[in-house]
Amino acid sequence: MRPGIDADTRSAAAWEGVGVLFILGIGYILHFLYGWSGESPLVAPFAAVNESVWEHLKLAFWPAALWTLLERSPMRNRINNFGLAKAAGISVMLLLMLGLFYSYTAILGENVLFLDITTFVVAVCGGQYLSYRLLTGDERSPVLNLIAPFAIVILAVLFVVFTYAPPEAGLFRDAITGRFGIPG
């Protein structure tokens, strides 16, 4: 054991590392699940229903939210800042996906599948790394740790609502059809 690396820190690193694989794997499935399900309205809030940037954010959000629920019980008494770490990590994933995608497409003038996938991987790794740093860092405000998870709840509500009633803005426009929301 290296000095300064205790069992709880190693455990947090392992959980967040496995979380990267979980989020990437489930995210991949969610990219195709709506079509595979026969366009089920029950699947629609959780899976990408079109090729808009907004719908692709679901590929990180829902698996990360599920991972948060799975790791909460085994991790909560061993680390600091669980609520803050998970809300910040998920938020950073989404912001990195947006920032990286719009940056590279502004430079290239088009999106490239390889760079889309790379953006997803970098965003998930970045979010999980931030989560790890907060989990193993000094304890933050207890109030902030209680309030922060509500950001996840608000995002979940927005993903459900905007699946069925997206605003007519570029973020929500299907890159292939130019339409908004569920195809059909």
Q: How would you describe what is shown here?
A:
The chain has six helices and no strands. With 184 residues, it is an all-alpha fold. The chain has one domain. Helix 2 packs antiparallel against helix 3. The longest helix is centred in the N-terminal third of the chain and has 30 residues. It starts with 6 loop residues before the first helix and ends in a 20-residue tail after the last helix.
Defining traits:
184 residues; mainly alpha; 6 helices
Q: What is this structure, in a nutshell?
A:
Helices cover 68% and strands 0% of the residues. With 184 residues, the chain is mainly α.
Mean pLDDT: 92
Tell me the number of structural domains: 1
Count, helices: 6
Low-confidence blocks of residues: none
Q: Tell me, briefly, the overall form.
A: globular
Alpha-carbon Rg, integer: 17 Å
Secondary-structure element pattern, one letter each? HHHHHH
The percentage helix is: 55-70%
Amount of beta strand:
under 5%
Distance between the termini: 58 Å
* Helix-strand makeup class: mainly alpha
Largest sheet: none
How many β-strand stretches? 0
